Amino acid sequence: MKDDFSIKGEVISALETVEDSAKNKNIIDAHMVEQVDVDSGVVDITLVVEQGRDRNERFALEDAIYDAVEAIAGVQEVKVKTTTPKAIEREQNADSSAGSKAASAAPSGGAKAPKQPSVPQAEPVQGVGKVIAVASGKGGVGKSTVAVNLALALKEKGHRVGLLDIDIYGPSLPTLLGIMDRPSVADRRIVPLQAHGLRIMSLGFLMEDDTPVIWRGPIVTGIIRQFLRDVDWSGLDYLVVDMPPGTGDAQLALAQTVPVDGAVVVTTPSELALIDAARGFEMFRTLNIDVLGVVENMSKFITPDGEEFFIFGEGSVEKEAERLNTELLASIPLDPAVRKGGDEGSPVVVSAPDSETSKAFLELAESVIERQPVEGGGDGDGKKKGLFSFLKG
Ligand SMILES: Nc1ncnc2c1ncn2[C@@H]1O[C@H](COP(=O)(O)OP(=O)(O)OP(=O)(O)O)[C@@H](O)[C@H]1O
C-alpha cells in the first residue's frame, strides 16, 4: 500500500492542476490551500476562499479538488473544508490568546503579551545528536555542495551522519548523490535512503519531475515537520540540513520545529553574495540559532600547474566574517572536480579524497565538531542518545 507521505506529495501536485479561473492561477500558486493532511489514506484539505465569493464558483473549485485528489491511487477518502481568511485569522487569534493565558505566569512587566505563534514547541529530533543547518543568503553559491561534502567529511571523521534536503526551490541532493528512489515506510516511520554511508532524505524524493514548486508557508512547515518527526533518524551523531537559499518560511519552520544546534552560512567572495549572506546571518541571530561561522566557496581557482587565481578578489569573506563577529570556517577552491563529482553523483570528498578541496571540507568538518561536539566524540554517540531519547519518549 502507498504510504501517506508519498500520497501527500501527489496531493500537492494534483492541487496544482486545479485552476481558479477568477485568479487565472492554480489554487496552490493563488495561496488558497491552507493545509493538507494525510492519515491512513484519508486526505484533509483546507481551502481558503474570500468572503462573498460566488457559491457556484466555490462549489466548482471543491468539485475540481475532489476529482483531482480522488484519482490518486491510495487515497481512501477526501475531505475538503472551505474557510475564509477572516475565519483563519480568528482561529489564530484564539490560539494565541490561549497561548498568552498559559504563559501569563511569566513576568510580563505590564507590557501586552506578544502574539504566540500557533505552532508546537521545538523538540529535539529523536535519536539525533546535533542538527547543523547549511544556509546561504543567495542561490547558486554552492550551499548544497557544501552540505553534501560536509556531511561526508563528518562521516570520514567517524560520525554517523544524516543529510536532509529541504530546499523547496530546487532540491539538489538526488542529483548530487545520484539517487532517484522513493523512501519506504516501516513501522509507520519513513526510512531514509542511503548513499555513500549517509542517511538521506530530500524534498526531491517527493517531486514527480524537476519543475520548481512554489509551496506556501503552511505546506512548507507541514512537510518540514514531517521530515523531522516522521523520518527514522535514530542513531545519528549529526543531521546536516540543506536549507533553501534566503530567509523565508523554511528557515522559520525549521527553527520552530527542532532546536538547531548551529548554522553554517555559505557564500562566494562576490559583493552581492556577501550582502545576502549578512542578511542570512542576521536572520539566524533573530531566530536564536548559533551561527558557527561562514564558509567561503569558490575562493580561488588553482590551475593544474598549481598557479592560483583569486577570481572574486581575496580576503573579502574573512573581512565580512570579522565584521559580523563570526569566523571563517573554511575556504573551498573553485575546483572542476567538485562540479564533475556533483553532476555524476560522486561528491569530491569521495571521488578525490586527497585533493586540496577535500582537505578543506575535512577542515570544515573539524571546525564544526570542535564547536558542536557530540558527547563521547562520535562513533555511536548518536546511537546512545537516540536510544535514550527513544526510551524516554
Ligand atoms: N567549489 C566549487 N567548485 C566548482 N564548482 C562548484 C563549487 N561549488 C559548487 N559548484 C557547482 O556550482 C553549481 C551550484 O552548486 P549548488 O547546487 O551546490 O549551489 P546551491 O547554492 O545549493 O544552489 P541552489 O541555490 O540552487 O540550491 C553546481 O553545479 C556545483 O557543482
TrEMBL record:
Biological processes per GO annotation? iron-sulfur cluster assembly
Q: Which GO terms describe its molecular function?
A: 4 iron, 4 sulfur cluster binding; ATP binding; ATP hydrolysis activity; ATP-dependent FeS chaperone activity; metal ion binding
CDD domains, per database record: Mrp_NBP35
Q: Does the keyword Iron-sulfur apply?
A: yes
Query: Residues that bind ATP, according to the entry?
Result: 137-144
* PROSITE patterns in the cross-refs: MRP (PS01215)
Task: Return the annotated region ranges for Disordered.
Answer: 84-122, 371-393
Q: Where along the chain is composition biased (Low complexity)?
A: 96-115
State the superkingdom: Bacteria
Keyword field: ATP-binding, Hydrolase, Iron, Iron-sulfur, Metal-binding, Nucleotide-binding
Instruction: Give the Gene3D superfamilies listed for this entry.
Output: Fe-S cluster assembly (FSCA), P-loop containing nucleotide triphosphate hydrolases
Boundaries of every MIP18 family-like domain copy = 10-80
Q: Family, per the entry?
A: In the N-terminal section; belongs to the MIP18 family. In the C-terminal section; belongs to the Mrp/NBP35 ATP-binding proteins family.
PANTHER family annotated for this entry? IRON-SULFUR PROTEIN NUBPL
Which function does this protein serve? Binds and transfers iron-sulfur (Fe-S) clusters to target apoproteins. Can hydrolyze ATP.
Q: How does it assemble?
A: Homodimer.
Q: What is this protein's record name?
A: Iron-sulfur cluster carrier protein
From which organism does this entry originate?
Persicimonas caeni
> What broad taxonomic lineage does this protein's source fall under?
Bacteria, Deltaproteobacteria, Bradymonadales, Bradymonadaceae, Persicimonas
